[in-house]
Design goal:
GO molecular function, one term: ABC-type phosphonate transporter activity
Number of strands: 7
InterPro entries: MetI-like, MetI-like_sf, PhnE/PtxC
Pfam families: BPD_transp_1
CATH class of one domain: Mainly Alpha
Largest sheet: 3 strands, antiparallel
Strand content: 5-15%
CATH architecture of one domain: Orthogonal Bundle
Order of helices and strands: HEEHHHEEEHEEHHHHHHHHHHHHHHH
Radius of gyration: 37 Å
Shape: flat
Low-confidence stretches: 159-166
Protein name: Phosphonate transport system permease protein
Main location: membrane
Number of helices: 20
Helix content: over 70%
Strand order of the largest sheet: 3-4-5
Length: 522
């Protein structure tokens, strides 16, 4: 390895280290370095000097360092700067950010205590960041300019000649480009979607409160005690209103007492009802009121609702959900099997076997349009299709069946056609040589080969459709989803928890029996 190569690597590594400590943003009298920003909350910037050191060490230790030992420290520098730029663009909070509404194109904003400093992205650029850019570029380009340094000469003892072996620097660059592109996409989407490994942990208190309820305060306990005290009055007042409504329902309005007389009569009825209540009945009303007030204030999904009459209603709604999934999957399979033979090139060639230009054009057109038709069927989510069908045919499970049918048909049609194209051609050729027709070949050669996959994917989609059907009720397409939506709107989270547990148990049972059915076809 030449001395010049080592010098350039040392220069590049020094640039990354020195640039980290020199100013990145300069605005008199303020100077802000990479180290300052790293301590300010962007700790990932500490990788920049480390990558510079990591590039220099292999060159000093090894006589013949490999290209990747120089390229990947440079890639690390590129990725670190990409992370910083992505954070500035996509984060709307923090000390350092981009403000597009800033004056005079000074769009980089730094929040310093109570003051804000705006920087121009070019005019206020400091020497540190320029050195970092230059060092990264040198590391990424050195293997290309010094690719001859990686040649090795080996003596072939058999033929008495030298063999020059060139390591594929171009292959290293291809790998470098693929990895860099992949991580660039991940970094941009990471910042765009505001992914944060610590956010869930930081909000664990909210999750615990949402799932298991919150601690009751003194004001909450006062509210619960007040509801318990007022429970008898509220119950008696409701019964009195019902009594008065029934009493004067068929009486002409002109012959009814005035509002004041009705109020006095209603109060008398209420007091009479209170006097007639037994102590046990009063205690039951108070306990129920206290329980409801406690649930209302405490919130949370746990413990789940255990009332047998309510669970019975949930199970009935779940049976309707399973029925929606059964019919949606069945109709989809019935339609997907025949259409998949036209979407697969090999079976379509059996149906239209001629090799003239017209036949080839017809086969290509049929395959293209069938596949685009399948794309359009699965292009929209079941939820969107259910919205459309509810608007067209009204509320009920039939809209959910149609939505699942079309979406599942698009998925299974694609899967079945791809599996048909992957079958073993030897069996098809054997039957063809006997003079069998296209439909005989499909029935006795193609179908037996794809049957295990057909059954497996059908059962998988059925299981998935059960979960999907549970959500379609949110838009009025029947099933248990309608109850879940209603209870969520009423903040009855414990009942929602019970329904979710029932759905999970049902999916587990369905998966168990689907596995047994699938084993019959393997």
């Amino acid at each position: 390895m030449t001395k010049g190569y080592r010098i350039w690597v040392a220069i590049a590594g020094s640039m990354l280290v020195a640039g980290f400590f020199l100013p990145w943003l300069v605005k008199t009298p303020f100077f802000f370095s990479g180290l300052f920003f790293a301590t300010l909350g962007h700790a990932f910037l500490f990788i920049l000097p480390i990558s510079g050191i990591a590039a220099v060490v292999p060159v000093l230790i090894n006589k013949r360092p490999r290209p990747y030992q120089i390229l990947y420290p440079g890639m690390a520098g590129i990725l670190i700067l990409e992370i910083l730029i992505s954070v500035l663009i996509f984060k709307d909070s923090g000390v350092l950010m981009i403000s597009l509404s800033s004056p005079a194109m000074e769009i980089i904003k730094l929040n310093m205590d109570t003051s804000m400093i705006f920087f121009h992205p070019l005019k206020d650029l400091g020497p540190g960041l320029i050195l970092n850019f230059a060092g990264i570029c040198i590391l990424c380009l050195l293997p290309f300019f010094y690719k001859n340094q990686y040649q090795t000469i080996e003596k072939n003892q058999n033929f008495y000649r030298h063999i020059i072996q060139e390591p594929a620097v171009s292959i290293e660059y291809k790998r470098f480009g693929m990895i860099l592109s992949l991580f660039t996409v991940l970094i941009i989407t990471y910042a765009w979607c505001d992914v944060s490994p610590t956010k869930l942990w930081e909000n664990r208190g909210n999750a615990k409160e949402y799932l298991f309820g919150r601690q009751l305060s003194q004001s909450d306990m006062e509210y619960i005690n007040n509801q318990e005290k007022r429970a008898l009055e509220i119950e008696a007042a409701g019964l009195a209103r019902e009594f008065m409504s029934n009493k004067y329902r068929d009486v002409v309005f002109s012959q009814q007492p005035n509002a004041e007389q009705k109020a006095k009569e209603r109060d008398a009825v209420k007091q009479k009802l209170l006097a007639q209540m037994e102590e046990q009945e009063k205690q039951l009303i108070k306990n129920e009121a206290r329980k409801n007030a406690l649930i209302d204030k405490r919130g949370g999904y746990f413990p789940p609702e255990t009332s047998l009459p309510k669970i019975r209603g949930y199970i009935i709604a779940l049976i309707e959900t399973v029925a929606i999934a059964i019919w949606g999957t069945l109709l989809a399979v019935i339609c997907a099997i025949p259409i998949s033979f036209f979407a697969a090139k090999n079976t379509l060639k059996l149906i239209i076997s001629s090799e003239d230009l017209k036949s080839r054009s017809i086969r290509s057109s049929i395959t293209f349009f069938v596949r685009r038709f399948l794309d359009s069927c699965r292009g929209f989510n079941e939820f969107v299709m259910a919205l459309i069908f509810v608007a067209v045919i009204g509320l009920g499970p039939y809209a959910g069946i149609l939505a699942l049918w079309i979406h599942t048909f698009g998925i299974l049609g694609k899967v079945f056609s791809e599996q048909i194209e992957a079958i073993e051609s030897g069996q098809v050729e054997a039957l063809t040589s006997t003079g069998a027709g296209a439909f005989q070949i499909i029935a006795f050669s193609v179908m037996p080969q794809i049957m295990p996959v057909l059954v497996s994917y059908t059962l998988l989609r059925f299981e998935s459709n059960v979960r999907s059907a549970a959500i379609l009720g949110f838009v009025g397409a029947g099933g248990i989803g309608f109850l879940i939506f209603d209870k969520l709107n009423g903040y009855l989270f414990r009942e929602v928890c019970t329904m979710m547990i029932i759905i999970i148990m049902t999916v587990g049972i369905i998966d168990h029996f689907c596995g047994k059915i699938r084993m019959k076809f393997i």
